[in-house]
Write a structure and sequence with these properties.
Belongs to the ABC-2 integral membrane protein family. This protein has 298 residues and is mostly helical. The protein has one domain. 74% of the residues lie in helices and 0% in strands. The protein is built from 16 helices and no strands. Helix 3 packs across helix 8, helix 6 runs antiparallel to helix 8 and helix 8 runs antiparallel to helix 9.
C-alpha cells in the first residue's frame, strides 16, 4: 500500500512525447499503412500520382521560367537544377501539411482510445518518404543521362539533406498540428507558408540572385538560415553540380556564384539543423503542454 501511495502518477491523456512514439514502432507501421490505404482508396493510379504531380510541376515551371523567362540560359542543366529543388519542396510540403492536419484528421482515434499521439506526426514523415522515393529515383536516372558523377561527399549531402527535411518538416508540422487542434485557421496559414516556401527558396532561381536584387543588410545570411534553403542547396550540390563540366564549374566559380558553397557543409548545414532542432523542441513543448486537452477540443 505504501508503494502505491508513493508512486508518481501521470496526468490522464498525457505521455512522454517522442519517447513513447519511438517505442511503439508497430503502431507507427499500422498508422503509415492506414494513411496510404485511405489516401489511395478508390484511386485508379494509386502511388503513380507520386510521379505525375512533380512531372506536371516541372513542366510548368520549366516552360514558364526556363524557356519563357530565359533562366535556362543562365544556368547550365537548368532542368536538373529545377527538378532537384522541386522534389525537396514536395517532400517538405508533404511532411509539413500532413503533420499540421495529423491530430485533427485522426480526431476519432484520439477521442476513443489513448495511444502516443506523436505517432501521428511521425507517421506523416514516413508517408512523405514513401512518396519521395519515386521522385528521387526519377531524378537519379535523369542525372545519369546527363553525366552525373558524384563523389562521396555529394552522396553524403543527399542523406544529410533528406534528414534535414525530415527534422524540419516534423518540427513545423508538430507546431502547427497543435495549433490546428485549437485554431482551424492554422490550415490556411500552412497553405500560405507552403506557397511562400516555393518562391522564397532557391528552387527556380539561383540564390545569388537574392544578393544581387535585394539590397538589405545580411540578406544572404538571413536567406541561408532557412533550413529549406540549405536543403535545396544540398540537393543542388549533390545532383546539379556533378552534371557540370569542369569548365562550367570554373566559369561559375569565377563569376562568384559559388562563394558560399565551401561553407555549405561546414557552416550552413549545422545552423539549419540547430534551427530545426530548436523548432522541434518548441513543438514538443507545446505538444506536452496541450495534449491533455486534445480529446476535449476535437
Amino acid at each position: 500500500m505504501s508503494d502505491l501511495a508513493n508512486r508518481e502518477f501521470s496526468a490522464p491523456g498525457r505521455g512522454r512525447g517522442l519517447k513513447d512514439a519511438l517505442n511503439n514502432r508497430y503502431l507507427l507501421k499500422l498508422l503509415v499503412d492506414k494513411e496510404i490505404q485511405v489516401r489511395y482508396r478508390g484511386s485508379v493510379l494509386g502511388i503513380v500520382w507520386s510521379y505525375i504531380k512533380p512531372a506536371v510541376q516541372f513542366l510548368v515551371f520549366y516552360l514558364a521560367l526556363g524557356i519563357f523567362l530565359g533562366l535556362e540560359k543562365g544556368l547550365h542543366n537548368y532542368s536538373v537544377y529545377l527538378f532537384s529543388g522541386i522534389i525537396v519542396i514536395n517532400f517538405f510540403s508533404e511532411c509539413f501539411s500532413n503533420g499540421a492536419r495529423a491530430f485533427v484528421v485522426n480526431g476519432a482515434l484520439i477521442k476513443k482510445i489513448y495511444l502516443p499521439r506523436q505517432l501521428f506526426s511521425l507517421s506523416t514523415i514516413w508517408v512523405g518518404i514513401i512518396h519521395f522515393l519515386p521522385q528521387i529515383l526519377v531524378l537519379i536516372v535523369a542525372c545519369l543521362f546527363v553525366g552525373w558523377t558524384p563523389d562521396l561527399k555529394q552522396i553524403a549531402a543527399i542523406i544529410v539533406g533528406i534528414l534535414l527535411i525530415m527534422l524540419f518538416g516534423l518540427a513545423a508540422g508538430m507546431i502547427f498540428g497543435v495549433a490546428n487542434v485549437f485554431f482551424r485557421d492554422s490550415e490556411n496559414l500552412v497553405d500560405m507558408f507552403l506557397m511562400m516556401a516555393t518562391w522564397l527558396s532557391p528552387v527556380m532561381y539561383s540564390w545569388t540572385m537574392v544578393a544581387r536584387e535585394v539590397k538589405f543588410p545580411y540578406i544572404e545570411q538571413i536567406y541561408m538560415s532557412n533550413p529549406l534553403s540549405v536543403a535545396v542547396e544540398l540537393f543542388h550540390y549533390a545532383f546539379w553540380q556533378p552534371t557540370l563540366s569542369p569548365e562550367q564549374q570554373l566559369g561559375l566559380l569565377n563569376e562568384g556564384n559559388w562563394h558560399m558553397f565551401p561553407h555549405l557543409l561546414t557552416v550552413w548545414v549545422p545552423i539549419a539543423f540547430a534551427v530545426s532542432l530548436v523548432l522541434l523542441l518548441i513543438g514538443n513543448f507545446f505538444f506536452r503542454k496541450f495534449e491533455g486537452n486534445f480529446a476535449q477540443e476535437l
